[in-house]
């Protein structure tokens, strides 16, 4: 708010009235940041209150809405050859489409013991929401753990049912419960701090870590990903490319697995 010349709070105003206010204020470019997500008010753009209307950031796919002119991304998440899959025109930002604040806090790393983690293990983590953890990702992670005997897996406890199900499914793939650790939901500074206790972030596919990937990289935690075929699966590749770590982007899951095992067994390379 401090960065803006004007800030108008319209939470208590109906869509038609908001659209009229936008039109009366002479707004040239109207950008929706939510798309088809909870509490979105994208429908007010159907009134066409601004001559140019765009979608950005919050929904990583086409809106399918004829009243949205542009979808804002970058060359990795939205290459021009994907244009046929968007109802909007593609607008590419330089670098990564996702903004990050280089001045936000970077709290010190807590001791592993305080997090319930073994001090001498290679900690592979994924703090993505559980709906991104598909059976084929668990197959892949089980093979990585089999190939890296010193490694453990650290996941987020979104709810008790997910924890029980994940332990059961990993056990069915040969991963002992003693090699799987869970962390609770925390406030953002505490979460950033604990990320620094891990050694490597294992991204998911076909839907990547998005904000979660930015948090990991800000914490100095390297992340490996597999470049997907659509926007949700190409975000981590965009972030890694923007910070000069394109070597951690793999084009298929076999190469992802090979790199994860290699890094988990090479402390000096992982440290670099």
Keywords:
28% helix; 8 helices; alpha/beta; six-stranded parallel sheet; 272 residues; 10 strands
Could you characterize what this model shows?
The chain is α/β, with parallel strands linked by helices. The chain has helices at 15-24, 135-147, 160-172, 188-195, 211-218, 235-242, 253-264, 267-271; strands spanning 29-32, 52-56, 70-74, 89-93, 122-126, 151-156, 180-183, 200-202, 223-226, 249-250. The strands form two sheets. It has a six-stranded parallel β-sheet with strand order 7-6-5-8-9-10, with helices on both faces. Strand 9 (223-226), helix 6 (235-242) and strand 10 form a beta-alpha-beta unit. The longest helix is centred in the middle third of the chain and has 13 residues, at 135-147. It starts with 14 loop residues before the first helix and ends with a helix. The mean pLDDT is 96.
Which series of helices and strands comes N to C?
HEEEEEHEHEHEHEHEHH
Alpha carbon gap, first and last residue: 39 Å
How does the major sheet shape up? 6 strands, parallel
How many DSSP-defined strands?
10
* Approximate shape: elongated
DSSP helix count? Answer: 8
Concise overview:
The protein is an alpha/beta fold and 272 residues long.
How are the elements arranged and paired?
Blueprint: H1 15-24, E1 29-32, E2 52-56, E3 70-74, E4 89-93, E5 122-126, H2 135-147, E6 151-156, H3 160-172, E7 180-183, H4 188-195, E8 200-202, H5 211-218, E9 223-226, H6 235-242, E10 249-250, H7 253-264, H8 267-271
Parallel strand pairs: 1-2, 2-3, 3-4, 5-6, 5-8, 6-7, 8-9, 9-10
Helix pairs in contact: 2-7
